Amino acid sequence: QVQLVESGGELVQAGGSLRLSCVVSNFNFIRSAMGWFRRAPGKQHEFVAAISSMSGESTDIGESMKGRITISRDNAKNTVALQMNNLKPEDTAVYYCAASPRSWGRASSLIYEYDYWGQGTSVTVSS
Question: Which stretches of the chain drop beneath a pLDDT of 70?
Answer without folding.
Answer: none
